[in-house]
Amino acid sequence: MSATADRTVRAACPHDCPDSCAMEIGVVDGRAVKIRGAADMPFTNGALCTKVAHYLERVYSPQRLLHPMKRIGRKGEGRFERISWDEALDTIAARFRSIAAEDPRAILPYSYAGTMGLVHSSGMDRRFFHRLGASLLDRTICASAGAYGWKATIGASMGADPEAVADARLILIWGANPVVSNLHGWRHLQEAKRRGARLVCIDPWRTRTAEKCDLHIAPLPGSDGALALAMMQVLIAEDLLDHDYIARHTLGFAELAEHVRSCTPEWAAAFTGLPADTIRQLARDYGAAAQDSLIRLNYGLNRHAGGGMAVRNVACLPALTGAWRKAGCGALLSTSGNFPVDQHALERPDLYPDAQRFPPRSVNMSRIGHALLSADDPPIRALYVYNANPLAVAPDGNKVRAGFAREDLFCVVHELFQTDTADYADILLPATSQLEQYDVHTAYGHLYALANQPAIAPLGEALPNSEVFRRLAQRLGFTEAALHESDEAIAAAAFRTDDPRAHGLAPGLAERGWARLNLPRPFVPFAQGGFRTPSGKCEFHSAQLAAQGLPALPSWHPPRESAATNPTLAEHYPLALISPPARNFLNTSFANLPRFLAAEGSPKLEIHPQDAAARGLSDGAAVRIHNARGAFHARAVLTERVRRGVVVSPSVWWRKLSGDGENANAVTSDELTDFGGGACFYDCLVEVSPA
Predict the structure, then answer these.
(1) CA distances from 263 to 357, 562, 680 (A)
(2) Residue 615, Cβ neighbours under 10 Å: how many?
(3) CA–CA separation, 222 vs 302, rounded Å?
(4) What is the pLDDT of residue 505?
(5) 498-515: average pLDDT
(6) Which CATH code for domain 145-333?
(7) Could you say which of 3.30.420.340, 2.20.25.90, 3.40.50.2300, 1.50.10.20 is the CATH number of the domain covering 7-59?
(8) pTM of the model
(9) Between the N and C ends of the chain, which has fewer C-beta atoms within 10 Å?
(10) pLDDT value at position 375?
(11) How far is it, in rounded angstroms, from Cα 83 to Cα 90?
(12) Which CATH architecture has domain 567-690?
């Protein structure tokens, strides 16, 4: 690391990114002085993204919360005074005890992927809230719809080996922007291009990734499912199929063929806004590539009303052409299903105390505003927020703010910084950064587990999630041993040791800080079938979906808000808004630090020059983006990177740093997706006016 470093500590990037990088931290006199990607970890390959390369600025930021505090102003004002940990924990325990005596389900935890570590995102926290009998949180805000559609077809979150994709000859990058959000995976896609592969990006926005591909196809937002159905129709009608693979390893092909007969490119053109010839040629190119094709999709296309079905439709394509036969080919959404995580051992749902008296209740995090404002029995009376910033990231933001502003809601926030959400806390607790805590990590973009060793002592009085819940458990008189285990003990139980995939993980994690799952290299999971579905086949027809009253076959589920499917709404709000990640933020992480705020500048709205001219908007003008749910302001960027009828606002800005106290979630809907109860962030019609 450095000739002057006292020691080098192995660590893991905790953020919500497929790459889950292995890191090395140089420490001198107890202070972290250098950070770099681990050169010996094959996927990280010595490199970090531009955000995490400056992670020490986050750790040592003067904005860090270092002491417990209690609110002294009105909710939302963000005025606090310092208190002791004893006072903070006694206050929380007393309120929880009082509420739980009537109905513990009136208490709700709210967390997501502020850290992806198993100890601090799904370990002691889940144990504590299970034992308390609190409401369960249905964590749906990002990937649940796509994961549901994928699993209904493939059976598990598995796919092509990310390190083998250089062998593909045609790669469809669908609803993904790996240059920004999967940098290390992009390295392997670039290698495929250097070897002669053709890269096609399918995205409503001409992203940085699209600019580097051979072809960009821009369907209207929410129309991916129709595009995939039309591709199936062409593949079947023109016999661009692997009949042997279909016969051996799929279920329901005859029904599928009949079902998609009418889903022609001409039919799909009306929904996608693409010429029928473009759709037909894409299908022919995909069919001609056959076993040498890869679809790298991400969760962009699952943030619509039909997001789950869209992912299901795309997941069917590789089985039609036999692309699963070859290493690095087929499709890849997530690798997370390869990791033999022992969820029961981590989360201990058996600790739930009285299911007969208080039947477990789930609350969908994507509708947190609705949940806080509803009169459900029981209504939510206490909220504990950690690893999340819902005031900025949750949809229908005005409803979320109204819910958090309830004076009768007891709210605890455990955070590194005073976020938008922290401003509404009654008790605000200081959290540790990744460099100050122990954890173990899986990944959803590669096949390596990682260990994170603490590199420095906690700053100020900061405590990790696990320690706070241990102390709360003690104050509430919970004596179960599982509520007092160390972080190391929790991590040791994270993987099922009887699963062959976990063989060799523990020694590798201890020695190097990373270890590859015990899987063949390259890993070609479905070359001989072996799908993780009930039938063991790729299920074009899903009896599981049918049993739930859902379409058994791949189908078209249109967006709720589009000119084609809701023309009355489109008369008032004719532009389709998508709000993908800003390059310099990671959700709302890093979005308060000076370096990244300066790089991002100010909230922007990319709009086609013709759409701008029709509204009297000039480049750089201040604009108001609005619909019936709310409004936010941004600076207009006139560009042909977006097609007519679509506008793009890179997100997610902290509200209080955005300039007008709002962000894109002022206009998004808290309606849910077809599968998995996911958020419909990109299913959103707006109008744009001069500010």
Answers:
(1) 51, 19, 25
(2) 15
(3) 8
(4) 95
(5) 95
(6) 3.40.228.10
(7) 2.20.25.90
(8) 0.96
(9) C
(10) 84
(11) 11
(12) Beta Barrel (2.40)
pLDDT digits (tens, 9 = 90+) for 613-633: 999 999 999 999 999 999 999
Nearest residue to 395 via CA among 310, 299, 308, 303: 303
Helix (H/G/I), strand (E/B), else coil: 628: coil
| 3-state class (DSSP) for residue 323 | helix
Q: DSSP assignment of 439-480, as one string?
A: EEE--SSSSEEEEE---SPPSTT-B-HHHHHHHHHHHTT---
Strand, coil or helix: what is 561? Answer: coil
666 touches 398 (CB < 8 A) = yes
Each residue of 316-334: pLDDT tens digit? 999 999 999 999 999 999 9
Best CATH choice for the domain 69-140+359-516 from the list 3.20.20.150, 3.90.1010.10, 1.10.3210.10, 3.40.50.740: 3.40.50.740
Two tokens, residue 651? 């997100």
Q: How far is CA 316 from CA 153, 338, 371, 506, 523, in A?
A: 7, 20, 36, 36, 20
Quick check: 124 and 466 in contact, CB under 8 A? yes
Distance from C-alpha of 205 to C-alpha of 133, rounded to nearest angstrom: 44
Q: Retrieve residue 390's tokens.
A: 């819902």
Judge contact between 636 and 621, C-beta under 8 A: yes
H-run or E-run covering 26? strand 22-28
Mention every residue, 6+ apart, whose C-beta is less than 8 A from residue 634: 602, 603, 604, 605, 622, 623, 625, 649
